[in-house]
Amino acid sequence: EKGDYKHFMLKEMFEQPDAIRNAIRGRLDFDMGTAVLSGLEFSPRDSALISRVLVVGCGTSMHAGMVGEYAFEEMAGIPAEVEQAAEFRYRNPIITPHDLVVAISQSGETADTLAAVREAKHKGATVAGICNVVGSTIARETGRGVYLHAGPEIGVASTKAFTCQVSVMLMMALKIARTRRMPRHEGEEMCRWIERLPELVEKVLEQNDAIKAVAEKYAKCENAFFIGRGYLFPVALEGALKLKEISYVHAEGYHAAELKHGPIALLQENTPVVALLNDIPGKDKTLGNAEECKARNAPVIAVVSEGDEEIADEFNDVIVIPNCPPSITPIPTVVALQLLSYHIAAARGCEIDQPRNLAKSVTVE
Ligand code: F6R
Q: Which GO BP terms sit in this record (predicted)?
């Protein structure tokens, strides 16, 4: 039931601190500075034998996988790739016995992701699932994996599943990293940050009214861009997906560096650009890209880290994200973009929980 909330999406966005708490409960081992994910069934030796991680999924789940890709490479030093599940299954992927294939699916029923799981198993990979729905087909067929414990997600636009998927990917990367080159004290610090995720998300939810005011300024736009780099590149893609699916505003997520290779031609005074300028490596470059947008008269909504507000002075609007390391920042940042999309859609009078042409789970190819 929606309770006091107008939409399931709103309720589920506000449930995120608790959903993440449930996703991490009992899974952080501060003594060893690692994560305990019993469903993965990896011994340290199994883990040491993994030579590559391939992440497959669709839509929002694929975006969560992209954050995971960065985390596996940065934290664990393992080559990682993410691929759209349908592309993976049909392009005859090269898989070796030392590959770990991670399938991400909220519903656990997405046809393309399931087919990718079957293909990967057939080719001899170790396959793990990250699912929310307990006993779903992908959860059963992967046999090993990690449940989100996010609770049922009813809104068609995925919100709490994404933040829990990323939380689980970070724990998976941490677990594997600690069997490799990551020292205990770094693992312990990562545990502390993961434990703080619910609180970081709460700080963003507290800005709901301010984000709503920004959203209402742009509710009449027909086009929008989201730009970011590094850990925030997938967040830009996810922000654009949320906006287009619930508000029907044509939104594009781009790597900030890619803008000048074409899409910048579309910018004009009624095309807002959401620039993810949080304090992570590459921030200064994205800042330069946001200035280029401003020079084309596009309004810029700057998303910045706390303490960095002055960089937003030259832009039209600002949303402030609590300070945290680069690998952690996708989670609070995406929550701000979920709220922004929600309020734009609400101001446009859209049917938020049941967007046209969409279904909660896509069981056809
Ligand atoms: C977007 C959305 C979809 C799903 C995609 C995969 O808000 O919900 O893009 O993420 O259809 O669904 P699952 O995760 O159930 O495999």
A: carbohydrate metabolic process; fructose 6-phosphate metabolic process; protein N-linked glycosylation; UDP-N-acetylglucosamine metabolic process
